[in-house]
Amino acid sequence: MSTTFPPTRKRTKGYNVTQVDAFLAQARAAYDADDSGPTGLTASDIRHTSFSLVRGGYSTSHVDAALERLEDAFALRERERAFTERGKGEWLGSARETAQVILNRITRPDGRRFHRTSILAQGYSVADVDALCVSLTDYFERGVPFSTDAVRTAVFGAQRGGYREAQVDLLLDSVIEVMLAVR
Predict the structure, then answer these.
(1) InterPro entries from the xrefs (predicted)?
(2) What is the pLDDT of residues 33-82, one digit of tens each?
(3) Mean pLDDT over the full length of the chain
(4) Distance between the two ends of the chain, CA-based, in angstroms?
(5) Are 33 and 109 found together in one domain?
């Protein structure tokens, strides 16, 4: 058995060892590939990677932390490539445009930032999401420090008639992309 990450206890579920090891081998090959061409794997791909849960798999917290570091490394590399190919001004201009779109969304009034689910369906807690949006507004408008980890690990309660999860998740992905672009 591989020892890349600590395993969970036999009765506890963790990430499938074979899947994690295969993905890490793919990521290593992509990162080590020639700098002149596309790697076939992006920071966004890493952010959206998922693994099956199995008894006795890898510790989810350890794997998630490694994936975050890997995403950061790929994002830095993508940024450096873009600086070379498109120029720093164009890259940062694109990040600024995305940040403005995000800001336009998160500065909407409380309870009206995203579409809502029906009263019979569960969505994200409006109060929880709105509280995160206030913190993100401080980050984007006033430069108040806010970490990518805080965005990545944001957890929202469930609420009938809450915000649509897909919309909120898409915005959070965009926030992370902007944060990594301007590091």
Answers:
(1) CHP03543 (IPR019932), DivIVA_domain (IPR019933)
(2) 765 555 578 888 998 899 999 998 999 999 999 999 999 999 888 888 88
(3) 90
(4) 38
(5) no
Q: Which of the listed residues 51, 85, 119 is the one where a domain comes to its end? A: 85
Q: Which residues contact 141 (CB under 8 A, 6 or more apart)?
A: 103
Q: Whole-angstrom Cα distance, residue 53 to residue 56?
A: 9
Under 8 Å between Cβ of 61 and 13? no
What sign does the dihedral 96-147-151-72 (CA atoms) show?
A: positive
Q: Please determine, for residue 3, whether its predicted confidence score (pLDDT) is greater than 80.
A: no
In sequence order, which ranges of 33-147 are alpha helices (DSSP H)? Answer: 43-47, 60-86, 88-106, 126-142
Domain count, the chain: 2
Nearest partner of 106 among 127, 151, 137, judged by Cα: 137
3-state SS, residue 71: helix
Residue 149 located in a structural domain: yes
Domain that holds residue 18: 13-85
Q: Answer yes or no: are the C-beta atoms of 166 and 115 closer than 8 Å.
A: no
For 117-145, give one letter per residue: b (16+ CB within 10 A) or e.
Answer: beeeeebbbbebbbebbeebeebbeeeee
Q: 116, 6, 121: which is closest to 59 by C-alpha?
A: 6
For the segment 109-133, the average pLDDT, to the nearest whole number, is: 96
Q: Are residues 27 and 100 in the same domain?
A: no
Q: Which pLDDT value is given to residue 34?
A: 62
